[in-house]
Design brief:
This protein is an alpha/beta fold. It has three domains: 181 residues, Rossmann fold (3-Layer(aba) Sandwich), CATH 3.40.50.300; 59 residues, no CATH class; 77 residues, no CATH class. Helices cover 45% and strands 19% of the residues. The strands form two sheets. It has a six-stranded mixed β-sheet with strand order 6-7-8-3-9-10, with helices on both faces. Strands 2-1-4-5 form a four-stranded antiparallel β-sheet, covered by helices on one side. Strand 4 and strand 5 form a beta hairpin. It binds adenosine-5'-triphosphate (ATP) and magnesium ion.
Amino acid sequence: MTATAQAAPAVPETPDDVLIARSITKQFGGLVALRNIEFVIPRRAIVSLIGPNGAGKTTFFNVIAGLIPPTSGSIELSGMRLIAPARRAWLEPLLWFAPPLLVLLIGILVSGGNIQLVALWGLLALLLATLILPTAMARPAWYESFIRRLGIFRSARPNDIVRSGVGRTFQNIRLFHNMTALENVLVGMHLKLRSTPVDAVLSTPRHRAEEEEARVRAARYLELAGLRGRDDELARNLPYGDQRRLEIARALACEPVLLLLDEPTAGMNPRETGEITALIGRLRTELGLTVLLIEHDMRVVMGISDRITVLDQGERIAEGTPEEIRRNPRVIEAYLGKPPS
Ligand SMILES: Nc1ncnc2c1ncn2[C@@H]1O[C@H](COP(=O)(O)OP(=O)(O)OP(=O)(O)O)[C@@H](O)[C@H]1O
Ligand SMILES: [Mg+2]
């Protein structure tokens, strides 16, 4: 177990690690919410992040999910560096504007003063710009790998991170309250659908088939999360525990490799807590998922985790198996307070 050494990796890295966080620091003004956090999540592991209130757990989730940029450090997902300080980002706008400007310049040079020809070349340059700029905004995978080959790096955006296989739930439930349970899950599938807006407007056979298949899959996720028969209930009418299950079902809809669960049993009674714990176990056995769990309920954490990392005031104070964590004096001190000497 690593009790004090912040710089040491959480567990030795292997090529099969789903996530590797290297030296993540996050400062909010003068407050250091995370300090040099090293973190490794092996494939198909259930890893828990625990610590007192304000320790930095949710901040760490938000960094992984691309919602807040770290002050320093990097995150790799399945061997792909997704979050890190920007490199040569200033070069990117040159890539957008150089081709149309070049076309315009060539136009001016070859037109020999013919204003109509220049206008035609200008139109061509404009057309090129209208192709390049939306592509740069959408940042499809081929564009991303193209700019990386040029040595340009910008961290992935939250939607790119979801596409790369990270699903999450929120500490404070965030559902689409006026949509049904099924519709909430369908929203989670949005990124994986292949049919285009044109397909949707024209209601093409491809769109209808995909929509039907998505509904079947969404119903399956609801059933897996324990919401069978609740498909048509408005999210806001579901009991609290079911809303938490619905968040999990929606996170599953984006077919994640890594699922981040932020206090999934908060506010639940012991029976519901037991059911969610069993569900998390099934997510690994039935869907092959890797899970990173933030949880305050120590029975859940100790019962289900392969490894546990403990944060306190932004620092990793311990890392190890549940048994090692249970006996760690720094963990006991952080949770229970130092006994009077
Ligand atoms: N957007 C923000 N701006 C400023 N400070 C923030 C922000 N987000 C979090 N913090 C601060 O960072 C620290 C860590 O917060 P965080 O929410 O990560 O804690 P946590 O471990 O999830 O706590 P809890 O168990 O209460 O959910 C806290 O001091 C918090 O006030
Ligand atoms: Mg939190």
